[in-house]
Amino acid sequence: MPLYDGDFEQTHGVPDNVKRLQQVFAEHAALLIASPEHNGGYTASLKNAIDWISRPRENGDPGVRLFASKVAAVMSASPGPMGGLRSMLGMRGVLEKLGAVVIPQGFSLGFEKDGTLADAKADAEVRTVGAGLVDVARRLARS
Ligand SMILES: Cc1cc2nc3c(=O)[nH]c(=O)nc-3n(C[C@H](O)[C@H](O)[C@H](O)COP(=O)(O)O)c2cc1C
Question: In a mutational test of the pocket of ligand 1, which residue from 33, 35, 38 has the highest number of ligand atoms less than 8 Å from its CB?
Fold first, then answer.
């Protein structure tokens, strides 16, 4: 995906990769975002993807509708001592602004530079977030 730019969009339209990602969003009820932390926030490439997805779809529907009423969960991973916790906080605000329902559970994964987990309980905690997301998405789908 190119860096979002209004002039680019006006000249070239929404790129095919974005249209494909918008379609994936349209086909799914829940959204699990896992991001590293870059200088205290989530990554610029993640925000760029969200900005593109929010643009109008081929059928004219607003892309922001792809986030509205979607159940979402956020996780982070970083070799830093806080496991990228700050990247999660910012992402929550963005998703809520777009109308997503962000579940309260979250998880920050701290790992060692060799890739091993810093916390042996991490696997179980990650699964708790996944299970919480599926649970809320299923209950909303039934209502
Ligand atoms: C530009 C840059 C800024 C970063 N800033 C932070 C930071 O503020 N806090 C942190 O915990 N890790 C920081 N990191 C480490 C990244 O979170 C780490 O590279 C990432 O978890 C590795 O994920 P990857 O293997 O998917 O690239 C930074 C890394 C880069 C490249």
Answer: 38
